[in-house]
Design a protein that fits this description.
The protein is of the alpha+beta class and 237 residues long. The chain has helices at 87-97, 165-169, 172-180, 199-206, 213-220, and strands at 16-21, 29-40, 44-51, 54-63, 67-75, 78-79, 82-83, 109-112, 123-131, 136-137, 143-155, 189-192, 233-236. Helix content is 17%, strand content 36%. The termini are far apart.
Length: 237
């Protein structure tokens, strides 16, 4: 039997992360996390609004999408003196980003494991999967140990925030403000609670920081953060 190709160093196995499709019959995938996940916090977006013969002003239009990435390890089962081929397992992961046939949208996935800002109701999409250089091959040259870089973006439904810049620009309040040379306040933003939501999760998604959940609680008179219920409409600061 030919000797198994080895590298001098071997990646260390740490905790597991599971990616489970929320709206697809595809199988969930569990991977071994190497190191810590890398978080890209959402950016606050401000747009410049021009006004005829008046100074333009800035209008806040919301937060960007939260993103994170992590490095994971795929290792084949030990069979005799060799590790098994990992192709079948890595294909399952790729199917969560590009479904078989590519005729349907990629599934939304729920995450579990030591990642950032993960609430029970949060959904994510896989933006990219990048394989590293193979750590080990079997005697037939098939990859049996390798790392992959997985990049994720948080999925936010288009109707979560009711604020509309276009509607605000044509409202009576906006027209009156334009006549006076000052910007008018936009309509209040709201969020409708769904099953599995927490105040910290809502704050992380929509305000950019889980630590801002007391701002939501105070604005809505919520004394116990565990008391929110599906269908409840919350005002957002």
């Amino acid at each position: 039997m030919a000797a198994v190709e080895r590298r001098e160093r071997t990646p260390q196995r740490l905790t597991s992360v599971t990616l489970a499709p929320a709206d697809s019959p595809l199988a969930p995938v569990t991977v071994e996390l190497i190191g810590a996940a890398r978080l890209s916090p959402p950016n606050s977006t401000w747009d410049e609004v021009a006004r005829p013969r008046r100074q333009s002003y800035l209008e806040w239009t919301g937060y960007g999408i939260q993103r994170q990435s992590f490095t994971c390890l795929f290792a084949g089962e030990l069979r005799g003196d060799e590790l098994a081929d990992i192709t079948a397992e890595t294909v399952k992961l790729h199917h969560l980003a590009i479904p078989p046939g590519a005729r349907t949208p990629p599934p939304l996935v729920r995450l579990s494991g030591p990642l950032y800002g993960i609430g029970p109701g949060d959904l994510w999409v896989i933006e990219s999967i990048t394989p590293g250089a193979p750590w080990r091959r079997d005697s037939d040259g098939r990859v049996c140990l390798n790392t992959y870089e997985v990049a994720l973006a948080q999925h936010v439904a288009h109707d979560v925030i009711t604020n509309s810049t276009k509607a605000a620009a044509t409202s009576p309040a906006r027209e009156a403000a334009d006549r006076q040379g000052a910007p008018a306040p936009g309509p209040a933003r709201t969020y409708t609670v769904v099953a599995g939501d927490t105040l910290s999760g809502i704050a992380a998604r929509l305000l950019g920081a889980a630590s801002r959940w007391p701002d939501i609680a105070n604005l809505n008179g919520v004394r116990d953060p565990r008391s929110i219920r599906p269908g409840q409409v919350l005002k957002l600061p």
